């Protein structure tokens, strides 16, 4: 059975910070039109893996391809690993949208300014067209009334929704989320998770690093559990959380959920 | 103290403001170059930038002014003392401004730059649209303090014979034999100028209403 | 002047004893001026924080006036204007006094920032474990503040060193006056001011390096703010 080409294919990915190996030979396919969740204890390397896919970190070894196109590095003749030119990197990366834990909205621009900025500077749209498009994106996530506000005038949940709109405005083929709700108060995580849930239903390819086990189990089609820079288990939520479980996963679930919830899963 | 004397001081204060404003403006341009040097990947440019900042921050402005005042004629540049004064002040404030700029650019959270990179902005676009405006806001208070520092330091150019506010007070004190009133009045004028500059700075900051970073 | 274009730093350096004498006076002014400034500045900061409101306003006014006017004008006011209100000082005591007042104004602001930067939680914690106010001051506030304000204190102290040069204008025989006098004697102005600049530069760099070492040694006491 030949599977369709994955949206992202990661092969033998390694990343060292100094002498510490943070990612140790990751192989992972991100299926198109589905939600893949990376879970695992802090320091397991899941955020680093996501940042490698965004090429915000340069992998020490291994290959990543997006829709079959190599990202950052390619196999050269006689198996050598060659770095691709910056132009090629920007082209492949333009299909990736990224949402950060700290939102990273530009503080000197309003919500509409944040969403329209790259449409003007990168895509060459007129300011008026870009702002119109930005307002549509903001309306879609229910923030149309806040378009003229600066990030400092928005709640954390609203900021993160604007950040999602900023990424979506550029029509990415895949969206990366780096712990998108980790810096939010519990009562604000819901609004962000709802936006993500709707995005998943619309068929967006998503790679999500999260501690929201409930979200991962209900929305994720595929879960990869990372530990010490390696993928310990991967598969559908039913498989990963099915008992009997890996002891490391049990341990992890008990830390992040209370005992009662962990036994329910 | 008569109004006539006070008016002479105010007249002289115009030169103080002019010299300081000129030095700050010229110093800003030099500071941009020095800061670019310090942040450059080129080792020579980086070393030169750092040496410039270290020297002009590491020596008293008085000594710099005297050195430049005597150095320029000795290399064949016979310029009026006002020019020597403004040159010395500009070089000195350039060193401080360059260090402020470097700090400000470095203080822009890296996540904001990564977000720009992820939208596909080029390095130049990221610098112009994201890093620079945020650094400007971050450094505004320090730049205003530096302007006030320069207004006060301009009193030192009195030693190279520029008749600005302090030198005028000195000359009048000698001829009228009323140092107490004249120096107090000169101090008052400096204070008023600096308060105005501080208020302008606060006003400008308030206009950038985008709050905390 | 200007006929002799040779640039001879050796000429200036041959007056080493006179240079060292001037250097001694500069260091004396600097140490006494900044020590007094540190102490008085601390008292001012405490007065503004814990004293009655009118005292706070008065101190704030004085600090703002000193910070808003040039040091040279303050020196002139004290040295030439002082006798008219019965304050007749030789140039060395006048110089030290002016330096100390100037330094105190700036140091008081740094101390004040230090007080403000100590997290309230630390003080509440000290209260909870039953420290007296004096113990809290000695065991919590002062050590934490030292770590917090050390970098800016080092910068300020270096600034004071450079300000001592201004006292040459009231003929105080410190480094700048001694070396420029040698220059005048031989019409070697450029040489003398070059030597001066290099000497101050070396002094400032040494202080900066010592300050950074002290910071590094204290860095383990740092906490996130």
UniProtKB/TrEMBL annotation, chain B:
Entry-linked CDD domains: TM_PBP2
Pfam family, one: BPD_transp_1
Transmembrane segments: 12-39, 51-71, 183-204
Keywords (A to Z) from UniProt: Amino-acid transport, Cell membrane, Membrane, Transmembrane, Transmembrane helix, Transport
Residues covered by the ABC transmembrane type-1 domain: 13-201
Membrane topology note: Multi-pass membrane protein
SUPFAM superfamilies xrefs: MetI-like
Intracellular or extracellular location(s): Cell inner membrane; Cell membrane
GO molecular function: transmembrane transporter activity
InterPro entries: AA_ABC_transptr_permease_3TM, ArtM/GltK/GlnP/TcyL/YhdX-like, MetI-like, MetI-like_sf
Gene Ontology cellular component terms for the protein in this record: ATP-binding cassette (ABC) transporter complex
Primary subcellular site in the record, as a coarse category: membrane
Record flagged with keyword DNA-binding: no
Keyword Cell membrane: yes
Family: Belongs to the binding-protein-dependent transport system permease family. HisMQ subfamily.
Name of the featured protein: Amino acid ABC transporter permease
Organism: Amaricoccus solimangrovi
